[in-house]
Amino acid sequence: MTSHGPDGHLPQRSAVTDGDTTGQDLSLLPDRPAEPVSDPGIPPHEPRPTDVDPVLERRAERQVAMLFASAALLALAFCVAYFTIDESDIFLGYGALNLALGLTLGFALLFIGVGAIQWARKLMADHELVEYRHGAASTAADRAESIAAFQAGAEESGFGRRTLVRNSLLGSLAVLGLPAVVLLRDLGPLPGDAFARTVWKKGVRVVKDVSGEPIRPEELSVGGQINAAPASFFETEGPDGTVIPAEYEGHQLQIEKTKAPVILVRMAPDDITPGPGREDWGIDGILCYSKICTHVGCPISLWEQQTHQLLCPCHQSTFDLADSGRVLFGPAARPMPQLPLDVDEEGYLIAADGFNEPVGPSYWERG
Amino acid sequence: MSAPAPNTTGSTRAAPTPNLPKRRVIGTGALTWVDERLGLGGLAKKQLRKVFPDHWSFMLGEIALWSFVILLLTGVFLSLWFKPSMAEVEYLGSYAELRGLHMSEAYASTLDLSFDVRGGLLMRQMHHWSANLFLASMTIHMLRVFFTGAFRKPREMNWLIGLALLQLGIIEGFAGYSLPDDLLSGTGLRIAEGLMRSVPVVGSYVSFFIFGGEFPGDVIIPRLYTVHVLLIPGLLLGLITAHMLLLVYHKHTQWPGPGRTNNNVVGFPLMPVYMAKAGGYFFIVFGVTALMGALLQINPIWMYGPYNPSQVTAGSQPDWYMGWLEGGLRLMLPWETEIWGYTISWNVMLPGLALMGLLFTVLAAYPFIERWITGDDREHHLLDRPRNQPTRTAFGIAGVTAYGLLWIAGGNDIIAAQFGLSVHTLAVVLRFAVVIGPILAFVVARRWALSLQRHDRELLLHGYETGVIVRSPEGSYSEIHAPIDPNRAYSLTTHERREPLQLASPVDANGVAAPGQAKERVRARLFRFWYADDVPKPTPEEIEAAAHHASHDGGNGHHVGIETSGMVGGEDFASHSSSEGTSAVKR
Amino acid sequence: MKKLSTHRRHPLAGLVVVLLGLVVAGGLYAAVRPAAAEGSQAGDQELIAEGRRLFVVGCSSCHGLNAEGIETKSGGNNGPSLIGVGAAAVDFQVDTGRMPMARPDVQAPRKEKVYNDDEIAALAAYVASLAPGPAIPAPEDYSTEGASVVRGGEFFRTNCTACHNFAGAGGALADGRYAPPLRGVEPKHIYEAMETGPQQMPVFSWLDEQDKRDIIAYLQRLEEQPAYGGPSLGSRGPVTEGLWGWVGGVGILVLAAVWIANNGARAGKKHQ
After folding, report:
1. How far apart are CA A95 and CA B106, in angstroms?
2. Which of B295, B410, C66, C92 shows the smallest number of beta carbons within 10 Å?
3. What does the alpha-carbon distance between residue B30 and residue C86 come to, in Å, rounded to a whole number?
4. How far, in Å, CA of A305 to CA of A325, rounded?
5. Per-residue model confidence as pLDDT tens digits over A131-166
6. What is the pTM of this model?
7. Do C171 and B413 touch (CB under 8 A)?
8. Is any Cβ of chain B less than 8 angstroms from the Cβ of A109?
9. Chain B 504-563, CB below 8 Å of chain A: which residues?
C-alpha cells in the first residue's frame, strides 16, 4: 500500500488513528498545516574552536595523547605495585596493595576513556547526519510471499489434514515432558517430618554455645542471657578423661544448628507470666526458648534484659519472653517455642522434654 | 566498473583479480579474506555509518552493558581461584583472626582470594560493585524508557526482554553474593528457604529439592555456582544480544526537535563517533568500577565469619536491589491461617513471592494497557516528554515512590539506629506511608506535569520571562517576555493532540446492541482519565492572536511568543523602555 | 598619656579587655570553687562517706536517696535500684560518662565523664557497700596476653553481633534504643559491661574469664585491623554500600554521560 520513495522516505499520510489495525505502515507525526510551529529543520552546523583554530586543535590532540600516555604509565605502575607491595602493608589505615592496584588500574582505564571521549568531542567531525527509518514490518509483498510459502509447506506436510498423525505426535511430545520432570526427582529427599524434629529430648544437657560447658542455674543471674545449644553438639570428656566426639558434626551439625539453638534467660519470677501448663518449665526464673525466629528462621540473640523483648534483626519480629514468647510486633505470626527445663543429678540444666511444636518458620504441613 | 566475472561456483560476486595492484587502505588484505568467506559487505555498508541520536539519557543502558562485560571479566578471574564446595576444611591462610577455624571450602577460597591472591580483593570488590551498578543502571534505564514512552510499538518486545534481564540480574546477584558462604549471605539463604517453605502444598518439597535436603545441606553452593556462572550468564548473554539486535533493527528513538521526525534519526555515525564515545564510556565505567574497588570497601566477608546457623549480625540486609522485598517482609502484618491442619503463611508469601510477581506483571503489561486505552497502533520513534503524558508519568512516580518506601523500610533498623528512632514506630509509619505515599505522589506528579504543560503553552504564546520589569506611565508594573527561539518552540509542539475516543454508536440501525460495549465504555473512561486534562497546544490562530494582542497592549512588556527566523537570543530590551515600541510579531 | 589615648581605640583593645575579664573571672572561680576530694583512699569508710556525699548530690534524684530506685506509676522507674549492682557497674556507667544522664531518655549514651577518677572510686565504694556485687576488675582480668583472637571471634559472633553488629558498629534495639558502637571502648569497660549487663544489655558474667579475655582481644584486633578493602563506609553492611554505590557509582557515571553527550563549546559567532 505504501512504497518507499526514491530516497527511502515514506510519503506523508494522515496520522489520525483511522482504525488501521495493520498499523504497520510508518506514519509521520502530524506535520499538517494545523500545527502551530513548522519544523525549522536541523540547525546549521556550528564549528567548534578546534575546528577553526589549529592551535586549539593541536592542543586538544596533545591533551588526548597525554591522557593515553598517562594511562600507559599508570598501567605500568600497577605492575610495579603488584610486585613490590606486600599484602600485609598498610597505608593510612587501609590495605596498601588494594589501594595501589585499584587506583592505578582505575585511573589508567579512566584516562583511556576520557581520552577517547575527548577525541570524539573535540577532534572527530561532529556534523549531524540524517538517516531515514524503515517501517518495522516487512513489505506487504514479502509478507504475502512468506504466508504463501508457509501455506504451501503446511499443505505439503499434511499437518492440518492428517489429524491422527498430528495428534499422536503432539501427544508423544507432551508425554516426553515427563522424563524431563522425573529426572529431577533426586534433587533431594522428601521432607517427611524433618522440619518438626529437633535433637532436643528429655535429659539432653543445655550447654553454652562455642565452649560447650554445662550450665548450673546459679551461674546465670537475673538479667542474664546465655546462647545455648544441646550437649550433643560438642565433644565431651568421658569419666576416664577420654574425649568423646560430638554426636553431630559437619553438614549434619549445620542442619541441626538451624533448629536446635536455644536462648536461656533469667528474669525475676514476679515478672514472668507462665503459659498454661508451663508453670514448671522454668527453674527459678530461668526460661529456655528456641532462638530460631518463627518468621523466616534467623537466629535471634538480641534480648533486652529489662523489657524482656527478643528482637529479631532480620525483620524486627519481637517476642516477649516473660509471656511464653508471645509476638509483640512484626511479621512473625507465631510465638517463640519454649523448651521445658529441669536439673540433672549433678546440678546442670537439662531439657525436661523436647519442643512441643516445630521450631522455626511455618510450612504447609505444620498443622 | 567492469561487470563481475562469473566464477566457477556460480556466484555473482566479483572474482578476485590478482593482477590489479593492491590498494594501500588499512587492513584491506585481511578484510578481503574475511569478506570472501562471510560476505559482510551488505551488512557493513549499512551499519558502519549508522546514525545514533545523542543524549545522556540514552547512555544509561550502556552502563548496564559495560557493567555486564566487567562482570564477565572479573568473574572469570574469580572463578580461577574460587572453590564452589561446601566441604569442611580448616583455614590455614593469612587472615589470622580465622586461622584454625573449620569452614566450607567456598568461604576459605574466598578468604584466599581476599588475602593470598594479589589483586584478588580488588577483583572481588570490582565484581561486587559492578553487579550493583549493573542492576542500578538497568533500573534507571528502565525508568528512562518508561517515562519517555520508548516501550511503545515497535519496541514492546524489547521492553519485555529488558524486564527479563532485570529479573535475571536480581537472581544472579543474589546467587553471586551467596557463593562465599559467609554469615550475612547464609542468613539471606536461610530467609530464602523460609520463603520457599511458605509456598502452599509444595513448599517443603521445593525447599528440600533446592537444598538437596534440609537447609543448609551440602549442595546449595555448588548449585548456585552453576546457576551463577553458566545458566544465568548464558541467558543474559542471549537476551542482551537480542536486546541489541532489536535496537539496531528499530534504530534508537530520539527526542523531538528541529529536523527530527518520526521517520528519521538525526545524530552522529557509529564509526567513528559512537565507537569512540561508547568505547570511551566502557573505559570510564570500568575505571570508575576499579576506583570503587580501591576506595569503597564492600562485603568484608572476613568480618562476617563463616556461615553458622546459630549466629547472626545486626543489620542483616540483602544487597540494595532486594531491599524493597526486604522492606515488604518487614512491614507485612502477621497474617497466617490454619485450615484443616495446614498452614498458609500470608505474612511470608505475599511480600516474599507475590510482590516480585506483582511488580513485573504490572511492568510487563503496561505497554499493552496503554496501547489498549489509546487505540494507538502506529510506530513511535519520537520520545514523549514526561509532562506530555501526565498520567503515565504519575503512575511511574507512584510506582517509584512505593518502591522507594519499601526500600527504606528494608533498612529501617539502620535508619533507626542512626537517627535514634524507634524501629517499631518507623515500621508502623512506613506501613501507612507505603499506601498513602504512592497515591499522594500520583496526584502531585500529575498536577505537576499538567502545570508544566500549561507553562509550555505560555511559552509559546507569550515568550519567556526575562526578569526585566517595566513600569508603564499609568503606574502599572509588568514583566517583559522575550520570544523563544523557533527551535525550542518547535520542540514544544511536536507532541500529539489527542482526540477523544469516538465511541461507536451503542446500538445499530435496528436497535441491536453492539457486542463489547461494556469494554468500550471502560476504555473510553480510562482514555478520559488518561488524557482529558491535557492542556491543548496552541493552534496557529491562537499564536497569531497572542502576537497581535502583544503588539496592541500598549507595550506593557512584549509578549511575543516565538521569534522569527534570523534572530538568535532575545530582542534588544532598550527599545522596550518606551510604550508602543517596536513590536508586532514579524511574521 | 598620649600613648594610652592613642591605643584606646586600637582594634585589638576590645579583645584584650575580654581576655582580661575571662582570666580574672576564671582565676577567681578557681580560687573560690570547692576543691575535689584529694587522696581519699585513706580509709574505706572515708571513701564510702565521700561516695555517699557525691551520690546524694548527683544521683539520688533518679536513683533514690538510698539507691533504692524510684518507681513510677506505670511500673517503670526514673532510675533503677543500685543495691547489688556492684562497684563494677558504677565504674562502667560513670567512667564512660553514661551516668549521670544529661536528661531522662530511653538511651544513656557514652559521653564526656563528669566525675574524676577519685570521685568515681568513691561512688563505686559507696554502692558496693550497699550489697555484694561485681567488683571492679583488676588489670589481669582484662589483659589480652595469650588470649586467642580466633576463639574470641567465635564468642563475639555468637553472643555479641546480634546487637552490636559484625564490626562492633552498633545496631538498633526496640523503642529508639540502640546497642552502641564498640570502637574506642577500653578493655576494662568491655569487661565490666559483660559482667554487669548495663541498661538493656544482658548479663554475660557466666562467660569464663578466659572467654571474656578472648572477646576483648578480638575487639582490640578489630580496632587495629586495617580496612583491607578501602574505607569501610561505616561497616553497616549492604545498606550503606548500596547508598554509596548509587551516589558514588551511578551518580558519577550519569554525570559522565551528561558530559559525553554534551557536544561542547562552539567557536562562537566570529568564526562563522
Report:
1. 23
2. C66
3. 88
4. 14
5. 999 889 999 999 999 999 999 999 999 888 999 999
6. 0.88
7. yes
8. yes
9. 537-540, 542-543, 562
